[in-house]
Amino acid sequence: MSDDRSHPPYAASAATASAPPPIPPVTQPPRDRTGLAIILMCAVSFIFALQDLFSRILGGEYPPVLIVMIRYWVFAVFVIALVARQPGGLRRAIRTKRPLTQIARGVILAFEVMVMVEAFVRLGLIETHAVFAVYPLLVAALSGPVLGERVGWRRWSAIGIGFAGILVILNPGGGVLTIEALLPLIAALLFALYGLLTRHVSRDDPAIVSFFWTGIAGAVAITLAGIWEWQWLAPMDWVWMGLLCVCGMTSHYLMIRSYEMAEASVLQPFAYTQLVWVSIIGVLVFAESLRPNVVVGTVIVVAAGIFTLLRQRLRSRQANRAAAAGR
Hints:
The structure is a single chain. This protein is mainly α. The chain is 73% helix and 0% strand. It has helices spanning 34-59, 64-84, 89-94, 99-123, 125-132, 135-147, 153-170, 183-201, 207-226, 235-261, 264-271, 273-286, 292-325. Helix 1 (34-59) crosses helix 4 (99-123) and helix 6 (135-147) packs parallel to helix 13. 51% of the residues are buried. Mean pLDDT is 81; it is low at 1-15 and 17-30.
């Protein structure tokens, strides 16, 4: 699901679904609720891991585009119901100053989720998430050309170290690098682009508008692509699908609540606990192996990502102080 309040949190696995920008609170939350926000983010990470489990099960039996399409139908209903309760309701949420960019965001995210489900099936949960963890570094690298933000040498160094970690994970010299290994990297690139575009539209549209367009545009796009792959699921698979959708709605609601209580930069490190949960699930449920190079590479990537986010937080604070001093 990066934002500090108006763009999508670089906290959630995009695999897990749409990571929409949280709807801003009506009132200022108390400062002492950071601890509760951290607990909620840890819970969100666990639920996201369960979503990946169900996606992996279903993706092995049905086309990923079908799984994502059904999920998005439920997600769109959830978005409409949640947005309708906000000030201004649906009429306010539909009005956007950047319709084409909002549509592009929704389409990119839906396609990213589909790529991740395909990666789960081909690579497994562990290696997919290990590579996908690079997305905060991609956000930092692309923030210059996409948003015109300045990236200093420290963050560029972290980006370089993070990509060295990806090479450790992929182990190109070991003869195991395949085309399929690029799937989570493609997904990370798409998710980073989604996040940057969300930051871009946040300059003109409030978060509730972006939240609405994320669900609706994504649902329409994935339906146009997936309706041709329609088939009825087996009775037990409808149970998995139901659990997947319930987890999706629950995780997004809890994520919204957590971002009402604390800044994204505070919560981001705890979102990485999802890597622990998917590793446990991968080993116990799907008999995946936790190779040493994947562990080492993941630690490098996560450390570089957290450093990059902390630097971004520091620069944002410095910019805010400078703006306040200039008033």
